[in-house]
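Reposting from the mailing list since nobody answered there.

I have sequence plus structure tokens for a pair of proteins and want to know whether others read the tokens the same way I do. The first protein:
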Amino acid sequence: MPRVNLEGSSSIVTGGASGIGEACARQLAELGSKVVIADLNEERGTQVANEIGGQFVKCDVSSIEDADAAVAAAAAMGPLRACVNSAGLGAAGRTVSRDGEPFPLDKFSFVIKVNLIGTFNMLSRAAAQMAKQEPLDDDGGRGAIVNLASAAAFDGQIGQCAYSASKAGVVGMALPIARDLAAVGVRVNTVAPGLIDTPIYGEGPESEAFKAHLGKSVLFPKRLGSAEELAFSVIDCITNPYMNAEVIRLDGGIRMPPK
């Protein structure tokens, strides 16, 4: 069975305006897919979409209406064959602060809403569209979804209670959703990045020194991973027709310490 041919297809990448999402969008475009950049950053998202011949859709991933708009935009450009859920955020804080205050429930809920509920919202709307389409191979495959989790799902550090819970939820729903969607020929995989060099670390000499320090804790190679390297694994999950229901750590072998 050959790799999945994405020529003439459409794809959705949430969080596609920068970092990991942008790298995934560029690699999908190189494979011939028209990519919808679903993001809140209109200026950067439009720029990326224009550069790769795709389309920008302003999207709050937790909004049903926004998710449906992204799916409709993709389907108008070609059969929707891939959805990469890369949008996410964090809110650092201990469960009980040094001052004895509990972590604000609204902050915890917001992280869960974006990272977990938003991921499910986007994948379920995308999968519904994929289910309507003609199969693209003899197996009856109609599309593939890749969700981005995090090494924090397994090795959550001090102050990551909300983020780790949200990403552990993404990991936990991978198998049951893959089982659900097997009936319609849609594969579901999860990639859990470790320390990846994205704009979140800033720029300049101090930023580079900080990243070099972080890289020392990686087993091998002793550096942060690149967004491009992370995207390689995402693309493989999409184009390898036998890859399904997997959770892949892409972290250079790191196991995160408590802090």
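The second protein, same order (residues first, tokens after):
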Amino acid sequence: MPGKKLIVPLVVFAALLAAVPSFAMTSAEETYKAEVEPICKINTQANEKILKGVHQLVKAGKLGPASKKVFAAARALKRTRSELLAVPQPPEDSARLTKWLGYVKDEVVLFETLGRKLKAGEKTQAQKMVLRLKSTAERANNTVLDFEFRYCRFQPSKFI
């Protein structure tokens, strides 16, 4: 009798465990990640060079040179986005990845707006753009959290 009492809970536990969806990446997701991570890595490395010292330039009131760097970062991100759009997406994640790439497009626009604000000497407005940029990057990263990107996680706070 004691064996029967143990078997029933084990069967129920096994049935519940089988019903829980797997959170592991599929091979299509892994393939997509393997294709986009090198693209994002190049962009991240470029941003490290391009945006180096922007924060100090803004602090020192040198908004013109800072704006040039921000515009260069916007061009690099725009180029990266076009390369990411060319990578075939897994059909089951197409909606999520399209949303993510939409956020990346928003980030490009925010970088360009930030560059214009800096060029015009509007430091306070530029700070607002930085906050919007950080917020948009966070939403983009949350959209593709399951992919566990390393380089495709956009982190403007590292640079600005």
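Reply #1 (J.P.):
I read it the same way you do. The first helix runs from residue 2 to 19.
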